[in-house]
């Protein structure tokens, strides 16, 4: 029996290309696992009306963790048009499968390292080493949304003095997306950020919110962060508003270490941080819960490059490294990271985004050769 059972979900577009790259590296590491492929993505939405079929959820439940490629998402109306004729006009609504997996498996912590590897010509600076901890299940992603505004919701909201301004606007003309924060989730993401800082000897944790305006939700996050920070006297808690954070990240990114944010702000700043160290081709992530986790590069499915083996597999390979760490395979994780770092440092095998003409699989092969040597 192989030691690990991994759900293998390539998804759409270049997700398939980069997942092959991950397998090349894992094979070089002699990672002992059974990979169980699962259906997820656009094709299943169009054909079955569900991009995350129930059989895939069952598959995830029967594995240790999941390696995930990428997913194509489209806005509501566009998605509905691409359904097969027999599923049209049945009121089916497309929901992002990755957001659903995060919520259904309570993968509350989205960890996104952004580190400038020596030799990467795309680094904004060479001394950046940031890790974003993004709350992964609630906030503006909770999915509690209305349009038009239902009468009962409207009646309840009208008791709030700030609603007076909207009184004359028809319910058809109001859309509402609720930003839901729970104390438990705020505590858990901040705790994870501090625990990580402690384990890795990092000096500070910066909580990125906007409590001067979004008083209740951001306020709750900040208050919980201050309480938790007391348990870590050697690590500084910095508080920064999200808008200013975007500015500071361009001005002095090297000053920051661990960032912690709610779901939407974490989504936004993590793309910014990724660009500081080479762009989405370097944006890895782990979606981590108490007893399950999913690892994915955070770039999209880039349909125009699908099957061309053109995109940079570094984000996928770094996500694979996070998976190995989570599984406790620390020596394999560090061998993979050393392979990645060596190929970047040497600078001979580079995909187009780095100014080279190597394919996705060439890069994976170069990393694999380093691992074997
Ligand atoms: C990410 C992505 C997803 C998100 C999309 C694909 C739903 O942007 O993982 O950052 O918004 O979380
Ligand atoms: Mg994103």
What are the salient characteristics of this protein?
single chain, 373 residues, alpha/beta, Isopropylmalate Dehydrogenase, Rossmann fold, 3 domains, ten-stranded mixed sheet, two-stranded antiparallel ribbon, 13 helices, 17% strand, globular, binds 3-isopropylmalic acid, binds magnesium ion
Structure characterization notes:
This protein is an alpha/beta fold. It folds into three domains: 1-108 and 285-373, Isopropylmalate Dehydrogenase; 124-141 and 181-276, Rossmann fold; 144-177, no CATH class. The chain contains 13 helices and twelve strands. It has a ten-stranded mixed beta sheet with strand order 2-1-3-12-11-4-5-10-8-9, with helices on both faces. β1, α1 and β2 (33-37) form a beta-alpha-beta unit. α7 packs across α8 (215-229). The longest helix is centred in the middle third of the chain and has 17 residues, at 183-199. The chain starts with a strand and ends with a helix.
